Amino acid sequence: MHIISQVHSRACLLIEMATVPEPKRKTCSYSFHREPLTSLIELGSFVPDDRLKNFVGQYGDILTVLKTVVDPVPLQTLLQFYDPELRCFTFQDYQLAPTLEEYSILLSIPIQHQIPFLDVPKEVDFRLIARALRMNVKEVGENWKPCGEVVGLPLKFLLRVARDEAEKGNWEVFHAQLATMIYGIVLFPSMPNFVDHAAISIFIGRNPVPTLLADTYYAIHSRHGKGGAIRCCLPLLFKWFMSLLPASGPFVDTQSTLKWTQRVMSLTSYDIRWQSYRIDVKDVIMSCGGFRNVPLIGTRGCINYNPVLSLRQLGFVMKGRPLEAEVAESVYFEKKDDPARLEQIGRAWKSIGVKDGSVLGKKFAIAMPDYTDWVKKRVETLLLPYDRMEPLQEQPPLVLADSVPAEHYKQALMENRRLREKEQDTQMELYKAKADKLHLAHQLREVQGEDASRARSKKRSYEEMESMLDAEHRECLRLQRAEVNYQKKIRDLEKQLKDKDTQLKKEMELRQKSEDHLGGEVLELRRQLKEKITPLPDCSECSLLIDQCHYLKTLIPEDHILLTLVVCFLPLRMYKDVSISLYLFCSLVAAGCHLFRCSWSWLLTLVPVLGRIADQRPHRYSTRLNQQRSMDQFQAELAEMKASMAQFMNMMQGVAQGQEELRAMVQRQEAANPPINHAPPEGGPVNDNNVAAAVPNNNYVVGDELGGIRINGQPIVPDAANARVVRAPARNPATIVDRQEDMFSLLKFPWF
């Protein structure tokens, strides 16, 4: 009777639905843009099958998320049922909301009971990033670039590096780089073809589940009622929603005949797969710190979610309506707007409130009438986005009967007793089966232990052989590289030696040409020197000049010794040989240097000018060092000879000037005093009263003759005019030829 009344009420409801249109909420259009993942999926296929398990154990089942094809129609339908106040999706008589535990199971990544990702560091730690990506610090720093409002690494660069590592067989490095790209492009998308700093930081932290759930809720909540692009991990949200829908039956059979909205509206709580894969969930995170619900921190903002509404999804009983504090909005803001609140949430995650079966009850995914009535009232307030549809499959009775007949009760007791006996028999069989299993397992372990020891020994020997072969192979490669390097060095040295030989030949030819040229110059200089040498004059003339020099030496005071140089060159042109003049010049210079207490170095610089040209032969060993020394010695001698000649020319010009003055003085004396041929007896005394009137006569010199002579513009001291006339000693007197013309023609000397 009760069933008949229930069917009647449902029929009345359907008739009412058909006649009276139900108000509906406004729908929005959302977009689900995803970057092309062809290159990343192709790179994921490089992971070998034998290493796939290792990759999943280390980074989670993110390859499945990468390869998930997202259908935007189911997601578009799902978002129309979003309840912004309760942070869930409210349907006709049930509610759905993604949880931390479900995301953890779908990704095969455990939830770390620690502070999740808060925010990107202010300063980039390239060493930490390079260590996580198994890359070089310099390489990371050079490719670190800004993109919009974020910074990070371009996907193109990471793809190229990962391909190189896969080709080399560096699978650990390849796995780390592939996981980083999946984090940046699929799990935490920000900019197209770009892995930002936040995704890399979350990858380093190895606790992505709270951040993923936060980004999902924040993206849906921020775009609710506005529409637009939903930027979060869409493959994970799609996979979660599809895991709750029926996998067979009328819902699947009508996918080609009904729209997605109609198919979803035809579902009831009886059709949802509440514990398909969630049966093993034992502990549920229900709160954090002082929050009655769970505050989540995403990459862009913070938002709370209410796990009390999702207990049925995890296999627990929904007993009644939740408390207001458990479903109240506690957190929703953008991270950059409230840093203090962000730090408060981070501190709350230090104290995580976890509840297990002792609090939540036994596993039984049903909803009590109190909760169902509360959901229906919520639907009346919130409204549904689409028209109601009749369920596609038969539904169980909404309300059970209050009493049953006695016969049915007795049958149920008998059946219950029979089932208990059968359970005991089954338990006994199970005990025996477990004992047999333990015995077989013990035997198997013994056999496996022996086999394992043999396998380990073989594996160890194989590994040793492989390591030896590896070492030999590396050594061969090293020797080959060394041989190539040495051959290259030998070729370079041979080339350098050849260049040096060519350069040496050129230097030898140049030296030979220089020697020939300088030898010709030396011969020419010698020839010119020989042409300038004239025969020696008679000895009587030489003696007369020497006597005159000695006489002048007695007349000239010490501080006017340069006058001696003037007088000694008076008869310079009388001699055809320059060596006699040089002898007289050197004698007077020696006397002057002695009087002035000066060194002989000045004289020695003048002696080699005319009398010597170095005749030393250079070392004849044909070496580059001796060749250079010979050239330097020859150049030094030539420079020394030129310097001495320049000094000698300057000195001779001064002497010529003195001769001109002396000539003018003699002419004045001759004009004033005609020559008188009276001479005192040889060796006789000289009258002091006639000193002022003394005049030169042949080989005599008087003091007045020197009175007007100036040396370098200074007159001879007056005391020289009062000097006694001294008879120049005569040696083998000979006829003196008047060479006055030659006496004052020094400036016409051929060397000048």
From TrEMBL:
Keywords of the record: Coiled coil
Coiled coil regions, renumbered to chain: 462-510
Domain DUF7745: from-to ranges: 40-380
Pfam families for the chain: DUF7745
Source organism, top-level taxon: Eukaryota
The name this protein goes by in its record: DUF7745 domain-containing protein
Natural source organism: Pisum sativum (Garden pea)
